[in-house]
Amino acid sequence: MKVDVLLGLQWGDEGKGKVVDVLTPRYDVVARFQGGPNAGHTLEFEGQKYVLRSIPSGIFQGDKVNIIGNGVVLDPALFKAEAEALEASGHPLRERLHISKKAHLILPTHRILDAAYEAAKGASKVGTTGKGIGPTYTDKVSRNGLRVGDILHNFEEKYAAAKARHEAILKSLNYEYDVTELEKQWMEGIEYLRQFHLVDSEHEINNLLKEGKSVLCEGAQGTMLDVDFGSYPFVTSSNTICAGACTGLGLGPNKIGEVYGIMKAYCTRVGAGPFPTELFDETGKTIRDLGHEYGAVTGRERRCGWVDLVALRYAIMVNGVTKLILMKSDVLDGFDTIKACVAYKVNGEEIDYFPFDITEGVEPVYAELPGWKTDMTKMTSEDEFPEEFNAYISFLEEQLETPIKIVSVGPDREQTIERYTEEDK
Ligand code: GDP
Ligand code: IMO
Ligand code: MG
């Protein structure tokens, strides 16, 4: 019996897809527990690049069971496009993929509502991915949602009622829209979805655990986008933290083993909202260019800045992170010096904890470390690490009071270095 959770510690896009793919051979099951097609998880291997949105990143490796859990919100039209593209590229998934009947459906009108609410917010808009995430979770919590299992009985009726309710809201907002094309693709998606294993995934996953199988839970977004602990209201609408794996899959908390927290050697954010260490200068631009920091799905420019250890300490705390994974340090390979925010100055006072509000008046206090000025992208073992890089790792481990167990030095599956001791295995 073993459930490990892998999740993002920053504002998303830390490299979760890549590492889930790397770790998949060690598990029997890979499961997504929250979020939906707002995610874009990139994997690279054998010269090919794939971006997954709703399908777990364990889908490429042999006959692992991949589960889309009840905590996920699923858009059948986008799911169909994603699944068909994977099948066309020679990756069969119909037998491997199991979808919870309790996962909520993103309706075409949820996407329109997402746009309408953003438009109504004007300058204070969240900058959502426009995939209907907020309105779908809102319907779930207000007990108005449609679930995957609903497509099996009296679906037309339930759909018509939900659509009518959404249309009344859109009318009250005076929002102009045309749902015809979206609805057509969505209905095709519903028919396609019927061909998959639609399961009671909470039973399935617990039965597999009883049989001694192991599970890797794949987080989406990141802790700073969590609806409770992120930079509210500039967050997504689900619990991205470790506890989300329990509610999003039907797992008891005592089943959780390792909690892998993923972080970049710097920090990025897409969309609006506070970002204390954001860089508006040439350094920020250099990080964006070298790190190819553009949205995996939308192509939106990601805002870039230095790593924020205050926010990371908070993220490690609320997730109970046991092991850290450091991504994209190769992007800083050429830098003379590297900064890390170790505290905040708020109203002239230095604090080392994450405060209630980081919207205004938070000034980062930086430590400055020497760069390693070495191309690390071809390294395969930590024995090759330059001295300055080892010092940087030790600094992070000390500041974050958590060991860094994996270092990623490039986007490819092979560019991954483990720092495991025998007892970690
Ligand atoms: P996710 O949403 O957390 O899965 O991350 P994304 O896929 O949105 O963004 C991570 C990006 O960084 C992708 O383009 C990856 O291919 C790339 N990437 C992952 N790890 C590394 C790394 O160690 N170095 C570099 N240079 N790129 C990486
Ligand atoms: P992965 O899994 C980065 C951001 C959006 C917006 C906010 C709310 O690839 O790391 P939403 O559409 O969820 O209502 O948008 O959250 N956001 C992400 N940013 N990576 C993601 O996913 C994100 N998913 C949502 O940009 O600011
Ligand atoms: Mg992403």
How would you summarize the topology of this molecule?
Layout: E1 2-8, H1 16-23, E2 29-32, E3 41-45, E4 48-52, E5 65-68, E6 73-74, H2 76-88, E7 97-100, E8 104-105, H3 108-121, H4 133-141, H5 155-172, H6 180-193, E9 197-199, H7 201-210, E10 214-218, H8 243-247, E11 256-264, E12 266-269, H9 282-290, E13 303-308, H10 309-319, E14 323-327, E15 337-346, E16 349-351, E17 362-370, H11 387-400, E18 404-408, E19 416-418
Helix pairs in contact: 2-6, 3-4, 3-5
Magnesium ion binds at residues 12-13, 39-41, 296.
How would you explain this protein's 3D organization?
The chain is α/β, with parallel strands linked by helices and 425 residues long. 29% of the residues lie in helices and 22% in strands. The protein contains eleven helices and 19 strands. Strands 9-7-5-2-10-1-11-14-18-19 form a ten-stranded mixed beta sheet, with helices on both faces. Strands 12, 13, 15, 16 and 17 form a five-stranded mixed beta sheet that branches. A hairpin with a 2-residue loop joins strand 3 and strand 4. The longest helix has 18 residues. The protein is globular. The model has no long low-confidence stretch (mean pLDDT 96). The site of guanosine-5'-diphosphate has 24 residues, from helix 1 and strand 3. Guanosine-5'-diphosphate binds next to helix 1 and strand 3.
Q: What does the main sheet amount to?
A: 10 strands, mixed
Summed up, the helix count is: 11
User: What portion of residues is helical?
Assistant: 25-40%
The proportion of residues in beta strands is 15-25%
Q: How many angstroms does the end-to-end distance come to?
A: 15 Å
Radius of gyration: 21 Å
Distinct ligands, ions and cofactors found in the model: guanosine-5'-diphosphate, 6-O-phosphoryl inosine monophosphate, magnesium ion
Tell me which oligomeric state these chains represent.
Answer: single chain
Low-confidence stretches: none
Shape call:
globular
Calculate the mean pLDDT score and round it: 96
Q: Strand-and-helix sequence, N→C? A: EHEEEEEHEEHHHHEHEHEEHEHEEEEHEE
Total beta strand runs = 19
Structural class: alpha/beta
- Provide the spatial order of strands within the biggest beta sheet: 9-7-5-2-10-1-11-14-18-19
